[in-house]
Amino acid sequence: MGGHLSHTNKLIFDYWWRHSFADLGLTHPVPGLIWDYCPDPGTPGFVPCFSTHLALSSSPSPGFKADSPAPFVSTSRADAVAHVAQRLVSQGSPVLLVGALGSGKTVLLQQILSKTTSNDVTLQHYYASQFTTGQSFWSCLKEQLEWKWGRNFAPQGSGNRRLVCFLDDLHNSAPAGSLGEMVRCHLTTGGVWEGGACESQRWHHVANTSYVCTASSVVGERRLDLRLARHFTVLHWDGYDSSELETIFSTILSPHLSPTSGAGAGVGEVGERLVQLAVQVHSRLSPLFLPSPRRQHYLFNLRHIAGIFRQLCRWCIEEKEVSARGLVQAWQRESWWTYSGALSSKVDRERYQEVVSHALRKHFCQSDLLPELLQPGSHQLTCSQRENLCRQLQQQLTHHPGLHINLYDTVLEEINRLCQLIRSPFDLSHVVLIGHAHPDPLVQLAAAHCGYTVVRPSLYFSSSLLATSCSPFGMSPASYNEESLRHNLCTLCTEAGVKNQQMLLLVTSVEMLHVSFLGLLHKAVCNGHITHLFPREERTRIISAVRSSVTRAGIAFSPTTAWQFFLSRVRQNLRIVLATPDLRPQGDTPLDVHWMEFLSRVNIHYHQPWTQRDLVDVALHHLNAISVLPPSLRESCAHMLAAIHLQLRARQGLLPAYNSTFQYLVNWFVEKLQESHNLQEEQTGRLRQAMECVEKAREKGGEVEEKLVREERVLEERDEAYRKVLVQLGQDTAISEEQSRLVARQRHRVSDLRKVHSKQL
């Protein structure tokens, strides 16, 4: 009975029980609830249910490899649910585990089924999605069955072999042609109907098959049909409380902080306080934010805090010497990117910072690390790490000249985070980038840095990293449908699993031509659930293709081991990144619950709109690259561009303003400014040439003028000389005339004298 009740209803029932049967002389348990105890046959009292036995009596693993899943750690309440569920599964009874989204239902049932599975039991794990129908599930289920006689089918194998179908997220199945209706029909009648139209349906009796299912208790408008639920033994899973989370993560983290693992002195104590700090922050953040359309991706659950500690364990394995400061700073980085990186507003990030600061002051109040941990930006890369990463990325840009990206500090932080996630295990590696209008350069540079090849559905399938101009896999958007994407996902998985190539699938909201595309991506994200993509003939061909690789790996070949080897390679080499500028991909119908289910399984990074200071810094980064404006004018232009962008962003209309829009605006402004400067320089050059010609003409005119002056002086001197000559000539003429007159007089006198003389004679 208690398994059907939520935690709140259990509290109410516990209160009623204690007050109704207080006068019977029973010794009621004080700590916990009555559901945690059972009657003691020897005394009129209660003892803990699992004081004598445990359902999952397994000691925690002393650490794990960098790419392996985290070990399962038992708790009392998990053991209670596991004990009941394990007995029901062993008897073949259908079990339905209901709980909150991301509360650990799947992991708990997987642990139960791993203890239950034997040579006589076959386990079939199937993830239900919004687009899952009964016929699609039957096509997968039929591959595990073999025909006996007539219309009777049974699990493959000899004897009374049982098939346990593990249906995850049963509440997500499509209402039309529902998976739930098929399961209900099987549970009530022992068989299923195959076929679409009524006249073409065929009845099949399926024996020795049981169901183990999970469903979320709060899923908005989509709820599980009560006609289906009444056929199951419903167990309610409330999730882990804070004390259980501290026990789980202390058990997982402590082996990596022991002195034998290379940890420094006192790191183990810091690790215990760090676990308490992380659990407090997670418990505080989960109910902190009220739901809204902009906060629909605020799904902080067990997956997030478990992912943080798995990354911490990977960091401890990679570090040569683990220090207390490095451990806490590593947690700060992981916590910031996991929680604050998904927040969509500056106010929400400030609230996150308040929660973290309060928790740090509580658990590290007497530590010397507290002032350093409280500093803003303590989660960011150090200067040396940033310079080293920038140098490595510059080398990648030289090898890929088609990539054009500016390495701001924020871009370096994002690329570093993307590289870390790409190198992570499969279930921690998938990313949804929200707020990126043009994510291609960022993702391609991060993938190239990690050695991955980027493939987009809008591009023809090619190993070329920078192909940019083809329709979806060589097809027009009108003809590209769900079957096309399914075929190309098979091709991509074959490249990753058979050829052992590292592939990264980048899907943007523009390429989500149908909402059913997200259903395929959702199943691929669910721990590489891709078996349903391949028909039997294709699986046979893949098994033959990987046979030599299986043999070289030292594994005994069989079809099952070969297929598992192929799936492990796909999980090792395939990564998925979904980028959308808004919270919902474009499509013909809303994705509601299925979109939330998908977001709860991936890493979310919300690309925050830049603040005014960030906008000014980005503008100055581009303006300082050109020497057109003086420093004072550059600052004014940067503030002007930032103000324009903020005004456009405040008026979100048909053309939304993203950070990439501002970069385009700044690049356009710088380009136009450079063009104007070049035009001005060209005109100035022409004017300078004209002025040089004028100057040369002026110089020549000056020379001519000087020559004319000199010639004028010569002429004046000559004129003066000529004047003197003329004066001299005049004087000489006057003298000559005087002498001529004198001669004439003398001649006249002589003549007179001659006349006188002649007369005298």
Automatic annotation (TrEMBL):
GO BP terms, alphabetized: microtubule-based movement
Pfam families per the UniProt record, alphabetical: AAA_7, AAA_8, AAA_lid_1
Gene3D superfamilies xref list: 1.20.920.30, P-loop containing nucleotide triphosphate hydrolases (3.40.50.300)
Residue ranges of every copy of the Dynein heavy chain AAA module D4 domain listed in the record: 406-648
Molecular function GO labels: dynein intermediate chain binding; dynein light intermediate chain binding
Dynein heavy chain 3 AAA+ lid domain span: 274-365
Domain of life: Eukaryota
SUPFAM superfamilies according to UniProt: P-loop containing nucleoside triphosphate hydrolases
InterPro entries: DHC (IPR026983), DNAH3_AAA_lid_1 (IPR041589), Dynein_heavy_chain_D4_dom (IPR024317), P-loop_NTPase (IPR027417)
GO cellular component terms given for this protein: dynein complex
Family (UniProt): Belongs to the dynein heavy chain family.
Protein name: Dynein heavy chain 9, axonemal
